Q: What sequence folds into this?
């Protein structure tokens, strides 16, 4: 029988903990936002009086004087803390909890595709994988996409993958966020575009 993914009671880890990607030198990443989602997220924040920090994430092409990309494929919503943690749309001080007992998302029905796709993640455009840090997947020892009922999540991930395709031979850029843990000490994290490869 097919299992159905469900959040573990009391868990909001995916909304709280950000990670360095693809390496520490690039800083911590935020929640991926498709360009068409950016304005909607900004409007939701304005209506709720929530401060946002949205940075570019991936760009393509060669911009003026090679200083960055011609166009931005995706943006990222940064956490409200200096270390990149805690989604700004989490209600951390309220008593209302999400259906699974975790911290309530104030935009759950309008959350970005990246949140809808979770726990699916993809590094390679042809392979979908489960986030190895997801509490549900760890608690059930589940690490295979095919063993979970993830049709809605797969649909959201496909939308992301389709929107972030780059033509072959295109220069690919990643934005370094200058966001990291205080425990990293004096590590100087850059902020700005870094050319990573041609696709």
A:
């Amino acid at each position: 029988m097919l299992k159905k993914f469900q959040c573990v009671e009391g868990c909001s880890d995916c909304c709280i903990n950000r990670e360095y990607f693809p390496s520490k030198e690039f800083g911590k990443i935020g929640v991926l936002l498709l360009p068409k989602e950016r304005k909607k997220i900004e409007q939701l924040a304005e209506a709720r009086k929530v401060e946002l920090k949205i940075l570019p994430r991936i760009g393509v092409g060669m911009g003026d004087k090679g200083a960055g990309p011609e166009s931005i494929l995706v943006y990222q919503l940064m956490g409200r803390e200096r270390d990149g943690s805690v989604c700004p749309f989490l209600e951390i001080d309220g008593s209302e909890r999400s259906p699974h007992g975790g911290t309530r998302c104030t935009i759950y029905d309008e959350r970005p595709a990246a949140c809808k796709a979770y726990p699916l993640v993809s590094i390679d455009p042809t392979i979908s994988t489960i986030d190895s840090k997801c509490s549900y997947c760890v608690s059930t020892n589940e690490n295979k996409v095919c063993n979970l009922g993830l049709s809605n999540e797969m649909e959201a991930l496909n939308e992301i993958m389709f929107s972030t395709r780059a033509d072959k031979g295109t220069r690919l850029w990643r934005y370094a966020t200058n966001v990291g843990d205080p425990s990293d000490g004096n590590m100087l994290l850059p902020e700005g575009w870094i050319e990573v490869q041609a696709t």
